[in-house]
Specification:
Helices cover 9% and strands 53% of the residues. The protein has 256 residues and is mainly beta.
């Protein structure tokens, strides 16, 4: 279950926008510093570029997560997630998951047939291929949060309401559900940032204490940029704070 931690950080670190145009642009990059208790455990970065896939101009999203310092000695993490998704629909054509988390490794590439509602998953580690039937508009991990950034109803949500996306992850299809829990002015290294708060509903068990143990704070502006993430784990807790950014499409809103 530890494999879900970095993936969920990627998943909830993109934010949401009610604007019809994209809330992001090619060249956007941001970084999170990840703490395990009082320890600076590592970093996660997300970047988006222009690319061409299947003869179409697409976005290429890249997410990386890695441990640093003593944390790397005790639990080495080197994660790489990528997605190529359509600029108009937001639906993915191809995704990559190459990870090493304390010796747990995956090396997979998925090819998405949105018209045929199928995903061909190639596992390079086990040297296997498998085809999965999926619903229309199924997303991968990286495309999910960029897809949500342009969801039309986020700013209209009432406390307690949720949005759901069909997502393929770790050889499985499941519904990623995100609940809006309110607004808060959050103190950060950049100043006081107006934020929207969301809780992904995650499976309780060996990693998370309960179904709603993960909280994300998103800047309440046109970027809907992630500012903070906190997760209560079965042992300890993880906090990730925005540590750097560039290439935003809109000004980052900070209160004086």
């Amino acid at each position: 279950m530890r494999k879900f931690i970095i993936a969920l950080i990627f998943l909830v670190t993109a934010g949401f926008s009610s604007k019809q145009e994209r809330a992001f642009q090619a060249g956007e990059w941001f970084k999170f510093r990840i703490h395990y208790g009082v320890i600076n455990a590592g970093y996660a970065t997300l970047e988006i570029k222009d690319a061409v896939k299947n003869g179409k101009k697409v976005y290429h999203a890249i997410g990386k997560g890695y441990t640093t310092g003593m944390s790397r000695f005790f639990f080495k993490v080197e994660d790489n997630y990528e997605s190529y998704f359509d600029k108009e629909t937001g639906n993915p054509y191809q995704f990559v998951r190459k990870i090493n988390e304390g010796g747990y490794t995956k090396n997979q590439e998925g090819f998405v047939d949105q018209a045929g509602h199928k995903i061909l998953l190639k596992d390079y580690k086990d040297k296997k291929e498998k085809t999965f039937s999926v619903p229309a508009n199924t997303q991968d991990v990286m495309s999910t949060f960029y897809y949500l950034r342009n969801h039309p109803n986020i700013d209209k949500m009432k406390v307690g309401e949720a949005v759901t996306v069909d997502m393929f992850f770790d050889d499985e299809l499941f519904k990623f559900k995100l609940k809006f829990i309110g607004r808060e002015d959050l103190k950060t290294k950049y100043g006081t940032v107006p934020t929207m708060m969301f809780r992904p509903l995650v499976q309780s068990g060996r990693v998370f204490k309960e179904e709603e143990s993960l909280t994300v704070w998103i800047s309440d502006d046109d970027n809907k940029l992630p500012v903070r993430i906190k997760a209560s784990l079965a042992v300890g807790s993880i906090k990730a704070d925005l540590d750097g950014f560039r290439g935003l499409k809109y000004p980052f809103k900070v209160k004086k």
